[in-house]
Design brief:
8 strands; binds 1,3-dihydroxyacetonephosphate; 252 residues
Length: 252
């Protein structure tokens, strides 16, 4: 009932020509994929070029961040209407690197999420605990706070366009991952929280992803979990063959 989604977060990698080259190498490798949605999230300067490369394919493009205002005196910021005009359909919101290095908090994440919905972009809301929080047994409580604060004021009608990525901070770029059953437990908890907020039917439509050191070797175990509907992939999305192998993984 939920189409699995595999999203590539290229982070601050790839110039425009490099991004075009990666997209052109990837597209034929995933051209026959019909049962999974693929989203590429290049850095801002490469968005339009990657969107042009993906036109006519089943691969969609997303941005890695947005500002909550549509326009204004916000030097360096990029708005939802700008992303739409560049060819984006998705936007990552609240990535832990934005929270850690750029001072984003749940209040700004909430404003960004609202702006994305308002513009018709599908937000990929990222949340997850740090290692210290996990060791204190705070994983679920922390994730629930991030979820509720991000979604404050968001109406049930919007929720089917929401994607949530559970990304434990300690698993990002480290080669360490939770075992799939642990990730499933947190993701199932998030779905129950969404059901409490919006009802079981809308919550059942939200795609919940796992992110953090996903590889072609470990993706099958995550995808086999009943509540995990895909992945948000960092490092392993920077090579066409590796990312294609993740997109086309067999469920184990
Ligand atoms: P890695 O796959 O490099 O661990 O990054 C995960 C991530 O942050 C995706 O948003």
């Amino acid at each position: 009932m939920r189409t699995p989604l595999i999203a590539a977060n290229w982070k601050m990698h790839k110039t425009i020509p490099e991004a075009e080259a990666l997209a052109s190498e990837l597209l034929p490798l995933v051209a026959d994929v019909e049962d999974r949605e693929v989203v590429l999230c290049p850095p801002f300067p490469a968005l339009a070029a990657v969107a042009a490369a993906c036109r006519g394919s089943r691969v969609a493009v997303g941005a890695q961040d947005l500002h909550w205002e549509a326009q204004g005196a916000y030097t360096g910021a990029v708005s939802a209407p700008m992303l739409l005009a560049a060819g984006c359909r998705y936007v990552i919101v609240g990535h832990s690197e934005r929270r850690r290095y750029f001072g984003e908090d749940d209040a700004t994440v909430n404003k960004k999420l609202a702006a994305a919905f308002q513009a018709g972009l599908k937000p990929i809301l990222c949340l997850g605990e740090t290692l210290a929080q996990r060791e204190l047994g705070l994983t679920e409580a922390l994730c629930e706070i991030q979820l509720r604060q991000a979604l404050a004021g968001v109406e049930a009608g919007r929720i089917e366009n929401l994607v949530v990525a559970y990304e434990p901070v300690w698993a990002i770029g480290t080669g360490r991952t939770p075992v799939p059953e642990e990730a499933q437990a947190v993701v199932a908890f998030l779905r129950r929280a969404l059901a409490g907020m919006y009802g079981p039917e809308p919550a059942g439509r939200v795609r919940l992803l796992y992110g953090g050191s996903v590889t072609p070797e470990n993706i099958g175990g995550f995808m086999a979990q009943p509540d995990i509907d895909g992945a948000l992939v960092g490092g392993a999305s920077l090579k066409a063959e590796t990312f294609a192998a993740i997109v086309k993984c067999r469920i184990q």
